[in-house]
Write a structure and sequence with these properties.
The complex is a heterodimer. By secondary structure, chain A is α+β, with helices and mostly antiparallel strands. Chain A folds into 2 domains: 217 residues, 2-Layer Sandwich (Cytochrome Bc1 Complex, Chain A, domain 1), CATH 3.30.830.10; 201 residues, Cytochrome Bc1 Complex, Chain A, domain 1. Helices cover 42% and strands 15% of the residues of chain A. Chain A has 19 helices and 12 strands. Chain A has a 6-stranded mixed beta sheet with strand order 1-2-6-3-5-4, with helices on both faces. In chain A, helix 13 packs antiparallel against helix 14. Chain A is globular and about 115 Å long. Chain A starts with a helix and ends in a 7-residue tail after the last helix. About 4% of the residues of chain A have low confidence. Chain B is globular and about 55 Å long. Chain B has 6 helices and no strands. In chain B, helix 3 packs across helix 6. The mean pLDDT of chain B is 91. Chain B starts with a helix and ends in a 12-residue tail after the last helix. Classes of the chains: A alpha+beta, B mainly alpha.
Chain lengths: 522, 122
């Protein structure tokens, strides 16, 4: 005890000599003292800053737990029932088969009203390929009551927007107007769909425009997806280009357009959807009065699809062009139809793979491993996972834009992450993807137009509007084992379709991709 | 466990550790360097990240000290005696930030994310 005491005293007397020397210095200050002290920590600016930094870092030892309340890195399953009370979608089926569906938002002063139909490039034949798109272009060019440009002018006079799109299995014509002009918009839409005159000079002018567009294009994302569909669904109706081929466009005439309206713009395949400041009964009355001249042929789109089913062919199309700076490619597997319950799991898988481009804020710190790999190593300009569903088939894959020198690394990252979905899936990732999917679905339907589009699309694909509560329950039913099962069904050792445009010399070949659809680990 | 190791290695408690610290002090003082100046950013990428986060003045002072030491070593000289006495070799500026960087990387790995940087062979 005493020895320890003596030792500690000796140690303390040693202390000054461990930090300073007892060398006598010839400096002017040192005559009074035997040694010189080093400057205190506040003498130099860098020491002062280091001292204040140390105190700030000390504060980080005890982080403020308030920050973790909503921003925890561990995803949680929270109930979302309190945000799911949505106004009800009222659906009425008219005697001629037309479905009228509205969702009124009482706080909205504008409305979107439109016609969504089960018609598109899929239902044409090889000779008439391109009619749907041509028709969409021509339909606003004049009716019997309203001269050329009449419909467009009338909507714009009301301060509204008129818009249309043609897709492979869906065509839509919709108008966004003020709440008081909804009935007039329905009148214009009915007129345009039923009484359109396709004058010869308008047709030839539009033909020239479309031909010029076809020749000018080639390198956009849309083109990559067009090529992807044309190779994945080759020799099959879904593979047809929406715009049609040059020869067909040169020969499309008035009779073709009228015939298309007669066969495919039929009331059982149409939905008149409206959302916003609309009243269901008024729209139903207006529809009963106006939509009388359309054919009510009861062939449904499903029957047409059953006659000509789509077939997926594992294949690739590569268009090498060294004069553009970026390479764009898409890799896709065959997925399933929209009515298959596994389509929800595919949506969750799409969120798990994620999307990224150089403008998004959080690349290295996002949840998806694929996005982390891509952003940390800088191997792509942008990438996104996509999952599209048609009536009897679908596509699931990843689209990426990259510089030509990192295509090998990028392909490796994409294929390894996609195949990993069949082997190793962590529950945290699935919960995070589910939450992201739920929030993206709700954030998307944030205006009258997206809601009307959602109504139209859902009525055509599912036959009913799925309430959000049910949709969320279905999403929550997807867990890690479901993801593995669905990935084994669609991704494990399956043929894939690749389409690539640009300087793609270094993109690996088809067999390389096909080999990486499975691992030899177990 | 770590506190036992720290008391073992603490110069205030261990005479051997104090001897080591004295000898290091003598050698660092001769060249005008601090102990934290010896951490090499090329050796460990965490050190590079920690140096990137430190304020400019601190990193500039470190660079100047290293330049001075390189210059002295080239000339086979030591720092002048008056300057040697005012050296503070064990005043640290890097240890806290380095600990923070290592803690962040450990947390990232624990969450299952990919590391932000990895050592690649040159």
């Amino acid at each position: 005890m005493a020895i320890r005491h003596l030792l500690s005293l000796a140690r303390r007397s040693h202390k000054p000599s461990s930090s300073f020397t007892l060398v006598r210095s010839s400096s002017s200050r040192s005559n009074a003292e035997e040694f010189i002290k080093p400057p205190p920590p506040t003498a130099t600016i860098y020491d002062r800053i280091a001292h204040s930094l140390k105190s700030k870092l000390q504060k980080l030892e005890n982080p403020d737990i308030r920050f973790l309340k909503y921003g925890s890195p561990h995803p949680t399953q929270t109930p979302h029932t309190h945000i799911l009370s949505r106004p009800e979608t009222k659906i009425t089926t008219l005697p001629n088969g037309l479905r009228v569906a509205t969702e009124s938002a009482s706080n909205s002063r504008t409305a979107t009203v439109g016609v969504w139909m089960d018609a598109g490039s899929r239902f044409e034949s090889d000779e008439t390929n391109g009619t749907a798109h041509f028709l969409e272009r021509m339909i606003f060019k004049g009716t019997e009551k309203r001269r050329a440009k009449g419909p467009e002018e009338e909507i714009e006079n009301m301060g509204g927007h008129l818009n249309a799109y043609t897709w492979r299995e869906e065509t839509a014509y919709y108008a966004k107007v003020m709440g008081k002009d909804v009935l007039k918009a329905v009148d214009i839409l009915a007129d345009v769909l039923q009484n359109s005159k396709f004058e010869e000079r308008c047709i030839s002018r539009e033909r020239g425009v479309i031909l010029r567009e076809l020749q000018a294009g080639g390198h956009t994302e849309e083109d990559v997806f067009d090529h992807l569909h044309s190779t994945a669904f080759q020799y099959s109706p879904l593979g047809r280009n929406i715009h049609g081929t040059c020869d067909n466009i040169k020969t499309i005439s008035n009779e073709h357009l009228h015939h298309y309206i007669q066969t495919h713009y039929t009331t059982p395949r149409m939905v008149l959807a409206a959302s916003g400041a609309v009243k269901h009964e008024e729209i139903v009355e207006q529809a009963k009065k106006l939509f009388t001249k359309l054919s009510s042929d009861s062939t449904t789109a499903t029957q047409l699809v059953a006659k000509e089913p789509a077939s997926f062919t594992g294949s690739e199309v590569r268009i090498i062009n060294d004069y553009v700076p970026l390479a764009k490619f898409a890799v896709a597997f065959e997925a399933t139809s929209s009515t298959d319950p596994d389509s929800i799991a595919l949506m969750v898988m799409r969120e798990m793979l994620g999307s990224w481009n150089k403008n998004t804020g959080g690349g290295k710190h996002m949840g998806s491993k694929l996005v982390q790999r891509v952003s940390i190593n800088g191997i792509a300009e942008s990438m996104k996972a996509f999952s599209t569903n048609y009536k009897d088939t679908g596509l699931f894959g990843v689209y990426a834009v990259a510089k030509p020198d990192c295509l090998g690394d990028l392909s490796f990252a994409i294929m390894s992450e996609m195949t990993k979905l069949a082997y190793r899936v962590s529950e945290d990732d699935v919960i995070r993807a589910r939450n992201q999917l739920k929030s993206s679905l709700m954030l998307h339907t944030d205006g009258t137009t997206p809601i009307a589009e959602d109504i139209g699309h859902q009525l055509l694909t599912y036959g009913r509007r799925i309430p959000f509560a049910e949709l969320f329950t279905r999403i929550d039913a997807v867990d890690a084992s479901t993801i593995k099962r669905v990935a084994n069904r669609f991704l494990y050792d399956r043929d894939l379709a690749i389409s690539a445009i640009g300087p793609i010399q270094d993109l690996p070949d088809y067999n390389w991709f096909r080999r990486r659809t499975y691992w030899n680990r177990y | 466990m770590s506190s036992f190791l720290q008391s073992f290695l603490d110069p205030k408690k261990n005479w051997l550790a104090a001897m080591h610290m004295k000898s290091l002090t003598k050698r660092l003082r001769k060249y005008g360097l601090r102990y934290d100046d010896l951490y090499d950013p090329y050796y460990d990428l965490d050190i590079k990240e920690a140096l990137n986060r430190l304020p400019r003045e601190i990193v500039d002072a470190r660079t100047q000290r290293l330049k001075r030491a390189i210059d002295l070593s080239m000339k086979h000289e030591y720092l002048p005696e008056n300057l040697q006495q005012v050296q503070t070799p064990f005043r640290s500026y890097l240890q806290d930030m380095l600990a923070l960087v290592k803690k962040e990387n450990a947390e990232r790995e624990a969450l299952g994310a990919l590391p932000l940087y990895q050592r690649t062979l040159p």
